[in-house]
Each structure stands twice: as C-alpha cells, then as structure tokens.
Amino acid sequence: MGVFASRRRRARFNTDSVDATRTFSQMSGTISKKRESVYFDTPSGRNDKAYSMNGTKRGKVLIFNQVSFEDPSYEERDGTHQDVKRLFNVLPRLGFSKEDITVYEDYSYSEINRIAVKLEYDEDLKQADCLMVFILTHGEEGDRLMAQDDSYNLHKFLENFTPTSLNSMAGKPKLFFIQACRGRKLDRGVLLRTTLIQADCGRDMVDSHSEVYIHPEFADLLVVMSSHHGHQSFRNESGSWFIQEFCNVIESCESLKTTSIYDILTETNNGVSQRISNSDGDRNKKKQIPSFYSTLTKKLCFGPVN
Fold first, then answer.
1. What is the CA radius of gyration of the chain?
2. Which whole number is the average pLDDT over 130-146?
3. Catalytic: which of 138, 231, 247, 301?
C-alpha cells in the first residue's frame, strides 16, 4: 500500500528528477540562485525541420593543426599538411569562403583557448549559418587532445561554444571534427556475411510555430571523432584516413543542398571502414571506424550560398 501511495504522490506533483546520488544543493551546500531571464536571437524556429542556412556567410572554419610537440614522446605528425590542404580546397563546396578558413599551426593550449574565447567578439558570426572546428593532433584516452605544449580535455574546450559563451552562434550548428587517437587499442576487424533483413519504420510529426523558448545549453553541437572510443587513428604521408575520406565524400556528392551532414558522415564512416593498415608490427592489417555524437536539433544540409 505504501508503494502505491508513493507513486500517487509522484504523479500528483509530476516533477522531473535526475539520476544523481546527491542533488546539486547537497553537493555545494547552498541552493543555487535562479538564472536571470535572458534570451539570444537565432534564425531557426523552435519547430523548424531544418537549420536556416540563408545567412550572408556560410560561417567560419578554424583548423588547429598540430605538427610537432614539446614532449618528445609524441612524434611529428607527418602527412597532416595534406589534410589541411585538402580541407582548404574542399570546404568551399559546402559554401565556406576560403577567406573564412583559418589555419592555426602548433599553437599552445592557452593560445588555442584564446582563439576560441575571441570568437565572442567576431561580428561576422552574427550573420553566419554555422561554425566548423577541426582539431588535427595526437590524442589519449578520455578524449584528451595534445596542444603544442600540453594536453587538454575536449569536452571542457567545447564549453567555449555554448550560447552563454558565444551568443552569436546560439541555436546554430557548431561542428567539431577531431582527427586524433582516442587510446591504444587496435581494431582487428571481423568477418561478416550479407543476409536480408526487413523492418518497418515510422516517423514522428510535431506542430510548428514560432516563440521564445528554453533551449538546452549544449544543443546544436556535432562532435565527430576519427576513431572509436579508446582506439587509434591511422595517418600516412597522404594524410589521415578520416579527413581524406571526409573530403572524398564531399567532392563526390552530387547534391549538397539535399544531403544532410549525417549522410556525409555515414559515407565517411563507410570509406574509412574499407581501409586496412599497412604498417609494421601490431599495427599491420588493422581497421578503423570514426564515430560521432550529436545534439543537433534539426536537419543540416549545405546548399550553395547565394
């Protein structure tokens, strides 16, 4: 009887709880103050099916290319300049102007972070559709990335791009592409046999109207990793598997106006998955698969900028 009574009380108040052992007030010892009511302008409506890509600029591209490192245990990243060259030539197909693609080579962590913070004062971003950030470097487990002088946490770095830190990009897609190892594991691959599977599918429908609304702070992010969690990423004198296949897909795409970023990434995954390493020792005849996680809230396609 007591169990059912508890459920009835819960239903009456209809409040949401979190899966944490302690509440935030218990952890801090104080009750946090209510955040001041502030809203940020965004070009896409709450229930729009796709992100607005009609700005006067497609956006900015930041490429952090780490070639050499102060720590001698990290080898020079041969071939990474081929990735940069390819990106510089291919990204204009997505509507980016070459003048808006900036390469930062061998920057320290403080310099990388300073570049991210300074975006808050970039007036061009107010008219931009999206923002792309590429980080080409060595990496370790726990999504730690190497700057020229030290390592840093990817997810801490992403905090520079939330609406409260970067007002001009509120509600707009911010895309991060990370070419780096994520650990020491190697993908040996498995053997598969093709069979036919059939399944039904459906789709949800929602109403559409415009309003001021509360939006998650970490929404509208797409983080693409060159390998699966804990695994290594391959690169040679021609560039990295991940960046080269990503560029291959963009170059071969017939209609970028109707091709979503998920379609591009799925094709990239397929391209990388078909490669096999040619190396010495344990790294020979190994595989790689990129992965990504998304908090995008709408479909994202790259049509031509008018």
1. 22
2. 96
3. 138
Catalytic residue among 81, 130, 155, 181, which?
181
Query: What CA–CA distance (Å, rounded) separates 182 from 176?
Result: 15
* CA gap 144, 288 in Å, rounded: 19
Please say whether the beta carbons of 218 and 170 come within 8 A.
Answer: no
Count the neighbouring beta carbons within 10 Å of the beta carbon of residue 299: 13
Q: What is the pLDDT of residue 303?
A: 72
- Please report which helix (H) or strand (E) contains residue 65, including its range: strand 57-65
**Mean per-residue pLDDT of the chain:** 85
Catalytic status, residue 138: yes
DSSP letter for each residue of 136-202: ES-EETTTEEE-SS-EEEHHHHHGGGSTTT-GGGTTS-EEEEEES--SSB-B---------------
Between 44 and 63, the higher pLDDT residue: 63
Length of the chain: 306
Residue 11 to residues 8, 15, 108: CA-CA distances in angstroms? Answer: 5, 8, 53
Residue 267's identity, in one-letter code, is E
Sequence-ordered strand ranges (E) for 188-287: 221-225, 235-236, 239-240
Q: Please give the sequence-ordered ranges of beta strands (E in DSSP) within 186-297, or none if there are none.
A: 221-225, 235-236, 239-240, 291-294
Q: How far apart are CA 122 and CA 114, in angstroms?
A: 13
Give the model's pLDDT for residue 243. 96
pTM, full prediction? 0.81
**CB within 8 A of 296, min separation 6: which ones?**
51, 173, 219, 220, 221, 222, 261
